[in-house]
Amino acid sequence: MALPATKVLVAQKDTTNADLTVKATGYQWKWGYDYISGEGEGLAFISTLDSSHRQMSDSGDVSNAPVDYLLKVDNPLVVPVGKKVRVITTANDVIHSFMVPAFGIKQDAIPGFVRDTWFRAEKVGDYYGQCAELCGKEHAYMPIHVKVVSAPEYTAWVAEQKKKAAARQDDPNKVWALADLLPRGEKVYAANCAACHQANGKGAGPIKPLDGSAIVLDEDHTKQIQILLHGAAGGAMPSWAQLSDTDLAAVASYTKNAWSNKTGQVVQPAEIVAQRGK
């Protein structure tokens, strides 16, 4: 009995000869996925809870909650069926844990450390998990969605994602007009900020409002940029440094001109570049 059991335990920890390697980075309160090797190498994106689910949770009315309530994300981790997938885990701020019960995996994601695990999905479909380590006030809103697709579908998805990634590689020295930045900033805000600060910018409870905020209205853009890059309030406001320079400039510009904040100010990507690392 001991010998076959030992073989199984060893196999569970054997992450070698993977067809695909993905790094999963835990953030408060989202996951970052980087495709390190295999088909899709070089792809990277952030995965956050769908904003409509967060709004439903905040409302207290879950009578019409969908079956994937608090599990739906904007960008799922997509992998091919039947392939060995190695998941390297780490974290950017506090300890998180990457858990997907259907695959029998649970691996802590620890700042400054690299751990790994692996799985092989045998059926096409949607598989869900959650951060399994208490990581702060938004811990309940940090789901994991793994979308398993066929090999041809995966190849097509990779090609489409690479096209999108190329389109997002903006020149950080480009000078944008406010009218061009605002639609992009609105999308970034809806995907990443509205869950806490609310769509109307009024905040909720301890979450500070952005509508009328002195920092947002200030002509000195560095104050708001530093908060976006490094977070604030002991992590209650997380860092968004993983977003692109143009996305950060767009969302800052949007908040400076949305609601009653009609400042006419434009934050340029070059300003974000200048503040990184400070």
Brief overview, please?
The protein has 278 residues and is of the alpha+beta class.
Features of the shown structure:
Cytochrome Bc1 Complex, Chain D, domain 2; Cytochrome c oxidase subunit 2; five-stranded mixed beta sheet; copper; Immunoglobulin-like; 278 residues; 2 domains; alpha+beta; 33% helix
Please describe the topology of this protein.
Elements: H1 2-13, E1 20-27, E2 30-37, E3 44-47, H2 51-59, E4 77-80, E5 84-91, E6 96-100, E7 105-109, E8 115-120, E9 125-131, E10 143-149, H3 151-168, H4 178-192, H5 194-197, H6 214-217, H7 222-230, H8 245-257, H9 269-275
Parallel strand pairs: 1-5, 4-10
Antiparallel strand pairs: 1-2, 2-3, 5-8, 6-7, 6-9, 9-10
Helix pairs in contact: 4-8, 8-9
Pfam families: COX2 (PF00116), Cytochrome_CBB3 (PF13442)
Keywords: Copper, Electron transport, Heme, Iron, Membrane, Metal-binding, Transport
Subcellular location: Membrane; Periplasm
H-E string: HEEEHEEEEEEEHHHHHHH
Q: Could you name the ranges where pLDDT drops below 50 across 5 or more consecutive residues? A: none
Helix content: 25-40%
Spatial strand arrangement across the major sheet: 3-2-1-5-8
Name the CATH class of the largest domain: Mainly Beta
Count of discrete structural domains = 2
What is the terminal-to-terminal distance?
58 Å
Keywords: Copper, Electron transport, Heme, Iron, Membrane, Metal-binding, Transport
Family: Belongs to the cytochrome c oxidase subunit 2 family.
Subcellular location: Membrane; Periplasm
Catalytic activity: 4 Fe(II)-[cytochrome c] + O2 + 8 H(+)(in) = 4 Fe(III)-[cytochrome c] + 2 H2O + 4 H(+)(out)
